[in-house]
Write a structure and sequence with these properties.
- It contains 8 helices and 16 strands.
- It is α/β, with parallel strands linked by helices and 276 residues long.
- The strands form 3 sheets. A 7-stranded mixed sheet has the order 8-7-4-3-2-1-16.
- Strand 5 and strand 6 form a beta hairpin.
- The chain is globular and about 55 Å long.
């Protein structure tokens, strides 16, 4: 199995526009691993994309991805959905006004679809794309699995949210993709011994990272994530959804990896690949 972390940032990816702080200046100058775009994952082995941030067009081009057969959405938030126009950019022939290929399968839960319609992107856009045969919508249910050859993707609903995360399997290899909305997490037997947990970098209970941001307390802290990892014997942890408000440069985050070496913690960067 091969997957690519297309975007390792979050709501406030680094650098932020019009910002002159130390971190944004450094990331603008150094680029590379210091420059983060919105959260998204590509499963190369299945041509499956998870979430479409605003920068998804740039991400796909950067990684030389030539085909997307399906798109899965975790939840409705703007940093995960605002690049939805990638559907027509991938699959619409502007010369003939017809689809280039078969419709792209789009998977989202009914609750999240309704929230997306209410707060951000009207359902009529999906209707338009379906009428043009650019995509086909599928409503996911909790614990529902979809197969793409040898790859199986299982949707799992968070305990305290209508958002979903995904268990990606190929044979006995397992990756848990949990990029956001981790208000509460629950140990499940099917998650045991996963090779990787790719998870939202939230906040630390200990003084130092994000404790001054009240909204951070709506999500479980890093300490709880590591407890979850230990209880389920997960082999590796990759933190994503890294924001400017974390107040850490790439080099400073690398030092954090040493602190949590026993959990095999890594901090993601755009274009990071995982091979299993």
């Amino acid at each position: 199995m091969e997957v690519t972390i297309l975007g390792s940032g979050g709501i406030e990816s680094v650098p932020k526009p019009c910002c002159t702080c130390k971190r944004c200046k450094e990331s603008t100058k150094k680029k590379g691993k210091f420059f983060r775009t919105g959260p998204s994952l590509f499963i190369n082995s299945a041509n499956v994309l998870i979430d479409t941030p605003e920068e998804i067009r740039i991400q796909l081009i950067r990684e030389k991805i030539s085909k997307v057969d399906a798109i899965f959405y975790t939840h409705w938030h703007p940093d995960h959905t605002m690049g939805i126009r990638i559907i027509e950019q991938i699959n619409k022939d502007c010369h003939t006004d017809k689809p280039k290929n078969k419709p792209i399968d789009v998977y989202i839960s009914k609750d999240q679809f309704n929230l997306l319609d209410k707060f951000l992107i009207r359902k009529e856009l999906f209707d338009l794309y379906e009428s043009q045969k650019l995509m086909k919508k599928h409503f996911l249910k909790d614990s529902e699995s979809v197969k793409f050859g040898k790859i199986e993707i299982e949707a799992i609903k968070f305990p305290k949210s209508s958002a979903y995360y995904y268990l990606i399997k190929e044979g006995n290899k397992k990756i848990i993709y949990m990029p956001c909305e981790i208000e509460k997490i629950k140990e499940l037997n099917k998650l045991k011994n996963a090779d990787y947990l790719i998870v939202h970098f939230s906040w630390f209970q200990e003084k130092g990272i994000c404790v001054e941001f009240p909204w951070r307390f709506s999500e479980v802290p890093v300490e709880r994530i590591l407890e979850f990892v230990n209880n389920l014997s997960i082999k590796n942890v990759i933190f994503i959804h890294i924001d400017e408000c974390h107040d850490k440069t790439y080099d400073e985050l690398k030092n954090q990896e040493k602190k949590y070496k026993k959990f095999n913690v890594k901090f993601a960067f755009d274009g990071m690949k995982i091979y299993l």
